[in-house]
Specification:
- Keywords: Membrane, Transmembrane, Transmembrane helix.
- The relative contact order is 0.18.
- It is built from 4 helices and 11 strands, in the order αααββββββββαβββ.
- About 8% of the residues have low confidence.
- The protein is α+β, with helices and mostly antiparallel strands.
- It folds into 2 domains: 32 residues, no CATH class; 130 residues, Immunoglobulin-like, CATH 2.60.40.
- The longest helix has 20 residues.
- It is rod-shaped and about 95 Å long.
- Strands 1, 2, 3, 4, 5, 6, 7, 8, 9, 10 and 11 form an 11-stranded antiparallel β-sheet that branches.
Protein backbone atom coordinates (compact mmCIF):
# COMPACT_ATOMS: atom_id res chain seq x y z
CA UNK A 1 0.00 0.00 0.00
CA UNK A 2 2.81 2.42 0.88
CA UNK A 3 4.64 1.32 -2.27
CA UNK A 4 1.61 2.17 -4.38
CA UNK A 5 1.34 5.57 -2.72
CA UNK A 6 5.04 6.33 -3.34
CA UNK A 7 4.65 5.36 -7.04
CA UNK A 8 1.60 7.64 -7.21
CA UNK A 9 3.42 10.75 -5.96
CA UNK A 10 6.79 9.94 -7.72
CA UNK A 11 6.17 12.15 -10.77
CA UNK A 12 5.65 15.26 -8.60
CA UNK A 13 8.56 17.57 -7.65
CA UNK A 14 10.22 17.02 -4.28
CA UNK A 15 8.54 20.03 -2.65
CA UNK A 16 5.06 18.72 -3.68
CA UNK A 17 5.79 15.21 -2.32
CA UNK A 18 6.91 16.73 1.00
CA UNK A 19 3.73 18.84 1.13
CA UNK A 20 1.50 15.80 0.42
CA UNK A 21 3.16 13.62 3.07
CA UNK A 22 3.12 16.48 5.60
CA UNK A 23 -0.55 17.12 4.88
CA UNK A 24 -1.41 13.47 5.46
CA UNK A 25 0.49 13.45 8.74
CA UNK A 26 -1.28 16.62 9.92
CA UNK A 27 -4.72 15.26 8.99
CA UNK A 28 -3.96 11.95 10.72
CA UNK A 29 -2.77 13.74 13.87
CA UNK A 30 -5.86 15.96 13.85
CA UNK A 31 -8.11 12.92 13.66
CA UNK A 32 -6.32 11.18 16.50
CA UNK A 33 -5.60 14.12 18.83
CA UNK A 34 -8.09 16.73 17.59
CA UNK A 35 -10.59 16.44 20.44
CA UNK A 36 -8.61 17.25 23.56
CA UNK A 37 -11.29 18.77 25.78
CA UNK A 38 -14.93 18.12 26.54
CA UNK A 39 -17.51 20.53 27.85
CA UNK A 40 -18.85 20.29 31.39
CA UNK A 41 -22.23 19.19 30.01
CA UNK A 42 -20.57 16.34 28.13
CA UNK A 43 -18.63 15.37 31.25
CA UNK A 44 -21.85 15.30 33.29
CA UNK A 45 -23.59 13.23 30.64
CA UNK A 46 -20.68 10.78 30.58
CA UNK A 47 -20.71 10.57 34.39
CA UNK A 48 -24.47 10.06 34.57
CA UNK A 49 -24.62 7.71 31.61
CA UNK A 50 -23.26 4.83 33.63
CA UNK A 51 -25.08 2.94 36.33
CA UNK A 52 -28.57 1.62 36.75
CA UNK A 53 -31.47 4.00 37.25
CA UNK A 54 -34.17 3.09 39.76
CA UNK A 55 -37.78 4.08 40.32
CA UNK A 56 -38.49 4.05 44.05
CA UNK A 57 -42.12 4.27 45.20
CA UNK A 58 -41.89 5.62 48.77
CA UNK A 59 -45.54 5.78 49.72
CA UNK A 60 -49.13 6.53 48.82
CA UNK A 61 -51.47 8.98 50.49
CA UNK A 62 -55.21 8.60 49.97
CA UNK A 63 -57.73 11.48 50.01
CA UNK A 64 -59.82 11.01 52.03
CA UNK A 65 -57.73 8.63 54.15
CA UNK A 66 -59.10 5.09 53.97
CA UNK A 67 -57.09 2.56 56.04
CA UNK A 68 -59.28 -0.30 54.78
CA UNK A 69 -58.76 0.41 51.07
CA UNK A 70 -56.98 -2.36 49.19
CA UNK A 71 -55.25 -1.34 46.01
CA UNK A 72 -52.42 -1.85 43.57
CA UNK A 73 -50.20 0.74 41.90
CA UNK A 74 -49.21 0.39 38.28
CA UNK A 75 -46.28 2.50 37.20
CA UNK A 76 -45.58 2.86 33.51
CA UNK A 77 -42.04 3.84 32.59
CA UNK A 78 -41.42 4.34 28.87
CA UNK A 79 -44.51 2.18 28.20
CA UNK A 80 -43.33 -0.74 30.35
CA UNK A 81 -45.68 -1.47 33.25
CA UNK A 82 -44.56 -2.41 36.77
CA UNK A 83 -47.12 -3.56 39.35
CA UNK A 84 -46.88 -2.93 43.10
CA UNK A 85 -47.33 -5.17 45.06
CA UNK A 86 -45.40 -7.70 43.01
CA UNK A 87 -44.98 -10.52 45.51
CA UNK A 88 -46.20 -13.90 44.25
CA UNK A 89 -49.79 -14.53 45.31
CA UNK A 90 -50.32 -10.94 46.57
CA UNK A 91 -52.43 -8.74 44.33
CA UNK A 92 -53.67 -6.05 46.74
CA UNK A 93 -52.11 -4.01 49.55
CA UNK A 94 -53.35 -1.70 52.26
CA UNK A 95 -51.95 1.81 52.39
CA UNK A 96 -50.29 2.90 55.61
CA UNK A 97 -47.08 3.28 57.58
CA UNK A 98 -46.33 -0.46 57.37
CA UNK A 99 -46.48 -0.38 53.56
CA UNK A 100 -43.12 -1.30 52.05
CA UNK A 101 -41.26 0.66 49.42
CA UNK A 102 -41.03 -0.61 45.88
CA UNK A 103 -37.66 -0.29 44.11
CA UNK A 104 -37.65 -1.00 40.37
CA UNK A 105 -34.46 -1.10 38.27
CA UNK A 106 -35.18 0.62 34.95
CA UNK A 107 -33.73 -0.13 31.51
CA UNK A 108 -31.11 2.23 30.10
CA UNK A 109 -32.63 5.35 28.48
CA UNK A 110 -31.89 9.06 28.01
CA UNK A 111 -35.27 9.97 29.47
CA UNK A 112 -38.05 8.32 31.43
CA UNK A 113 -41.73 9.07 30.78
CA UNK A 114 -43.60 8.06 33.92
CA UNK A 115 -47.31 7.50 34.58
CA UNK A 116 -48.98 6.07 37.66
CA UNK A 117 -52.35 4.39 37.87
CA UNK A 118 -54.11 2.98 40.94
CA UNK A 119 -56.63 0.13 40.91
CA UNK A 120 -58.86 -0.36 43.93
CA UNK A 121 -59.97 -3.89 44.82
CA UNK A 122 -63.54 -2.50 44.71
CA UNK A 123 -63.08 -1.80 40.97
CA UNK A 124 -62.47 1.94 41.06
CA UNK A 125 -59.54 3.34 39.10
CA UNK A 126 -57.46 6.47 39.57
CA UNK A 127 -54.81 7.82 37.22
CA UNK A 128 -52.91 10.94 36.36
CA UNK A 129 -53.83 13.38 33.66
CA UNK A 130 -50.29 13.77 32.25
CA UNK A 131 -47.00 11.90 32.40
CA UNK A 132 -43.84 13.34 33.84
CA UNK A 133 -40.61 13.12 31.84
CA UNK A 134 -37.35 12.88 33.72
CA UNK A 135 -34.05 13.13 31.90
CA UNK A 136 -30.94 11.12 32.75
CA UNK A 137 -28.79 14.25 33.01
CA UNK A 138 -29.20 18.00 33.42
CA UNK A 139 -27.57 18.47 30.01
CA UNK A 140 -30.27 16.37 28.31
CA UNK A 141 -33.00 18.14 30.30
CA UNK A 142 -31.60 21.52 29.25
CA UNK A 143 -31.50 20.47 25.59
CA UNK A 144 -35.14 19.38 25.85
CA UNK A 145 -36.07 22.62 27.68
CA UNK A 146 -37.22 20.64 30.70
CA UNK A 147 -36.26 20.92 34.34
CA UNK A 148 -36.54 17.38 35.68
CA UNK A 149 -33.37 15.31 35.75
CA UNK A 150 -31.94 12.50 37.87
CA UNK A 151 -31.91 12.47 40.84
CA UNK A 152 -35.58 13.44 41.06
CA UNK A 153 -38.04 13.29 43.93
CA UNK A 154 -41.68 14.09 43.42
CA UNK A 155 -45.32 13.57 44.22
CA UNK A 156 -47.70 12.37 41.54
CA UNK A 157 -51.40 13.19 41.86
CA UNK A 158 -54.00 10.62 40.89
CA UNK A 159 -57.59 11.44 39.93
CA UNK A 160 -60.67 9.20 39.87
CA UNK A 161 -61.57 7.88 36.44
CA UNK A 162 -65.19 7.89 35.36
CA UNK A 163 -66.11 7.09 31.76
CA UNK A 164 -62.39 7.13 30.79
CA UNK A 165 -61.89 10.78 31.87
CA UNK A 166 -60.19 11.88 35.06
CA UNK A 167 -62.11 13.99 37.58
CA UNK A 168 -60.50 17.20 38.94
CA UNK A 169 -60.51 15.91 42.57
CA UNK A 170 -57.26 14.33 43.78
CA UNK A 171 -57.88 10.91 45.40
CA UNK A 172 -54.26 9.82 45.94
CA UNK A 173 -50.67 11.05 45.80
CA UNK A 174 -47.77 8.73 44.99
CA UNK A 175 -44.42 9.78 46.48
CA UNK A 176 -41.57 8.55 44.30
CA UNK A 177 -37.94 9.07 43.32
CA UNK A 178 -35.85 8.42 40.26
CA UNK A 179 -32.28 7.83 41.33
CA UNK A 180 -29.10 5.92 40.58
CA UNK A 181 -29.10 4.43 44.05
CA UNK A 182 -31.07 1.22 44.55
CA UNK A 183 -31.11 1.59 48.34
Amino acid sequence: MIESFLKLIEPYPLWARIAIVTGLIVVGAALVFGRQSITSAEAETATNATGTVYLRINGITLYPDDPDAELQIISSVNRTEYIFPSVAGVKWMKVGPAMGKKIIPLPEADSYEIWFKMNYKSGKVARAQDPITIYKSKALATNARATASIPYSGKYKLYPVKSDTASPAVVAVVSFEITQSGE
